Amino acid sequence: MLPDPTPRSLGPLSRLAPKPMKVILNWGRRYSLWVFNFGLACCAIEFIAASMSRHDFIRLGVIPFAPGPRQADLMVVSGTVTDKMAPAVKRLYEQMPEPKYVISFGACSNCGGPYWDSYSVTKGVDQLIPVDVYVPGCPPRPEALLQGILKLQEKIAAESLPSRYGPKPASPPASRPSAAALTSGLVTPQAPGEGRR
């Protein structure tokens, strides 16, 4: 009897593939990453520098500037993700075919950077889409992106098909913080009846 196919699987027999076949599949994914650069600010210039002849990340098997998200394996989000741009990031990620990977490049993409307290900045692209590798810096040097790509390639080489495409364990529901935890010590609440005159 064949095993039941799991949601998002590559087929019912994918987990039964022999180990040499898994190594070949991971090797092919590892050294043929088509990159979709989602450049939003100054970090995108460092991405362009990493793709030029001095740093030349094509030698690592990374092909920059995929024609669009439907031809890309890797999305590099670089720059400040604003709340207005967040739906576009999510939509383009959803258009990428499986297997797909994401590198968050720079402090703004990782956590909001120097603009983290702005009302219009998303506090990290990982709030929208799953991120595989974080590259810190403001802006990070091209060598940092090369290191991030090497880390992603190590992760791809070690992954197995069932772990990537199998059913995910259900996470417990997040509990809401209490009102006391949300009250800031810097602002004292007004008593009822106290208002502007």
From TrEMBL:
Superkingdom, taxonomy of origin: Bacteria
Necessary cofactors: [4Fe-4S] cluster
A GO molecular function held by the record: iron ion binding
Binding site for [4Fe-4S] cluster: C42, C43, C108, C138
Reaction(s) the record says it catalyses: a quinone + NADH + 5 H(+)(in) = a quinol + NAD(+) + 4 H(+)(out)
Keyword Nucleotide-binding tagged: no
Enzyme Commission number(s) of this protein: 7.1.1.-
Pfam families: Oxidored_q6
GO CC field: plasma membrane; respiratory chain complex I
Name of this protein: NADH-quinone oxidoreductase subunit B
Gene: nuoB
